[in-house]
Amino acid sequence: MPDLDAHTLQVLDALNKAVAEALDRKRKLGQYAVFWRDGEIVYEGPDAPDLSDHSSKKTSR
Questions:
Q1: What end-to-end distance do the CA atoms of the chain give, in Å?
Q2: Model confidence at 17, in pLDDT bands (50, 70, 90)?
Q3: Residue 45 CB: number of other CB atoms within 10 A?
Q4: Is the pTM of this model over 0.70?
Q5: 10-44 burial, b if ≥16 CB within 10 A, otherwise e?
Q6: Within 10 Å of residue 57's Cβ, how many Cβ atoms?
């Protein structure tokens, strides 16, 4: 990663914190989350849609 200035690092930190908080809130509410992983859409969570007949994956945490 290239050297980033202090402002850019603050922005990245704020974005990472916001995403972590949103994912934690979804987990606590029992809602699934959607990720892009290894070139595929991945649904994670107990209520994630079952897309076993599609190229997307369903996983549970």
A1: 29
A2: very high
A3: 19
A4: no
A5: eeeeeeeeeeeeebeeeeeeeebeeeeeeeeebbb
A6: 16
